[in-house]
Design brief:
This protein is an alpha/beta fold. It has 2 domains: 13-269, 3-Layer(aba) Sandwich (Aspartate Aminotransferase, domain 2); 273-406, Aspartate Aminotransferase, domain 1. The protein is built from 12 helices and 16 strands. It has helices at residues 13-18, 20-33, 40-52, 64-74, 92-99, 118-127, 161-170, 229-238, 260-290, 321-330, 360-366, 380-406; strands spanning 57-61, 82-85, 103-106, 129-131, 137-139, 145-149, 174-178, 186-189, 194-197, 204-208, 222-226, 243-245, 248-249, 307-308, 314-317, 369-372. The radius of gyration is 22 Å and the shape is globular. It starts with 12 loop residues before the first helix and ends with a helix.
Length: 407
């Protein structure tokens, strides 16, 4: 095993080498025109990504965090409001809520999809909130008005959006999709009897183009999608110091613009995204087949009939994860953990008052989830090696545990 070539968790070199000529042409175009901020490359990418997401508008911004922050502010989230999301996500989700002036509040996740559980959302709104005269939910423990919900399409897996949208309509909540890991993922709306793209379902959505994402820049970048023209215009102003035109500031804003070079790079890569996503799905299907007879040792990802995941990550559950991961590293297999500590237990949010046990599903899976290599170009032989190494690691861990118990 040690003589075999290691399997990286992620390969960002190969795809860039394959596109080197096109990517370098973007840089040359920027040099010849001195168009580094805004301009045609940004406009072209925004149009193409909006079309890809089946959305009317796309606004390029500096990062996924910018995208979510601007989306919340533009959607009307005010200082002192409460915004609902899940504890099983990257902290950027809740940072954006806090930076918009609101207080994050959590609902637990579904044990199979690891995404927001609509039943838990309903339970929170029914049992922990009252409704004011305007029809808005008021959190009875904090007295704050609940104005928005942020379902996170985590790992490239879609949330079950129909019931979330129904609850949002009933309680006057704005739905802001966190689609930062879901470029090209799709959801089948039973209510509308059609497939819908991530980024086109809520009032507004946020995307990250961090380099390791399915659609990644060569640096920081993000975007907001929406079919509301007024909201899109607000976000364009927020990203550019609140300017309606140069030196005319209708509001205080931010420096959150998308660099032209990054937009050009993303435009090149966008042409390949559908193919890359299909390769990821095939990799996921191969993993599923390889794990089909190992249900006692490994819990592979669950794919609902109403979802076409983009498989940004392939996340399974194993017991004694630390030992298994350490053994995999020794065998040359790269892995990751997304995410080891739920947000309500992070030191940054100790002031919110949540205690261990508040969200048992998120806490349970946090100790078991393990992300395996998945990227375009990952070969069947590499996946066989990953699975064989994982099963060897589990067997080794079980043997060590048995010896320890016998002594």
């Amino acid at each position: 095993m040690s003589a075999r070539k290691p399997v990286p968790f992620l390969d960002l070199v190969t795809s860039h080498e394959e596109l080197k000529a096109e990517l370098c042409a973007v840089f040359e175009r920027a040099l010849k025109t001195a168009g580094f901020i805004g301009g045609p490359m940004v406009d072209e990418f925004e149009r193409e990504f909006a079309s890809f997401c089946d959305s009317e508008h796309c606004v390029g911004v500096g990062s996924g965090t910018d995208a979510l922050r601007f989306a919340l502010i533009a959607a009307g989230v005010d200082a002192g409001d409460s915004v609902l999301t899940v504890p099983n996500t990257f902290i950027a989700t809740t940072e954006a809520i806090s930076q918009a002036g609101a207080r994050p509040a959590f609902v637990d996740i579904d044990k199979r999809t690891y995404n927001m559980d609509p039943k838990k959302l309903h339970q929170y709104l029914e049992m922990e909130c009252a409704v004011d005269d305007s029809g808005h939910a008021i959190d009875m423990s904090t007295g704050r008005r609940v104005t928005a919900v942020v379902p996170v399409h985590l790992y490239g897996q879609m949330c079950d959006m129909d019931p979330i949208l129904e609850l949002a309509e009933h309680y006057n909540l704005v739905v802001v999709e966190d689609a930062c890991q879901a470029h090209g993922a799709e959801y089948f709306s039973r209510k509308q009897n059609r497939w819908r793209k991530a980024g086109s379902i809520g009032k507004v959505a946020a995307f990250s183009f961090y380099p390791g994402k399915n659609l990644g820049a060569c640096g920081e970048a993000g975007a907001v999608t929406t079919s509301d023209p007024e909201l899109a215009q607000k976000i364009r102003m927020l990203r550019d110091h609140g300017q309606s035109k140069k030196y005319y500031h209708d509001m205080e804003g931010y420096n959150g613009r998308l660099d032209a070079i990054q937009a050009g790079i993303l435009q090149v890569k966008l042409r390949h995204l559908a193919e890359w996503n299909e390769q990821r799905r095939k990799c996921a299907n191969r993993y599923d087949a390889l794990f089909a007879s190992t249900t006692d040792e490994v819990r592979a990802p669950f794919e609902p009939k109403w979802a076409r995941p983009a498989y940004h990550l392939y996340v399974l559950r194993v017991e004694n994860r630390a030992s298994v991961q350490r053994h995999l590293t020794e065998l040359g297999v790269g892995t990751g953990i997304h995410y080891p500590v739920p947000l309500h237990l992070q030191g940054a949010y100790s002031g919110l008052g949540y205690k261990a046990g508040a969200f048992p599903i998120a806490e349970e899976i946090a100790g078991e989830i393990l992300s395996l290599p998945i990227f375009p170009g990952l070969t069947h032989n590499q996946q066989r090696l990953v699975v064989a190494s994982l099963l060897t690691s589990i067997e080794s861990n079980c043997s060590a545990l048995a010896v320890s118990q016998s002594t």
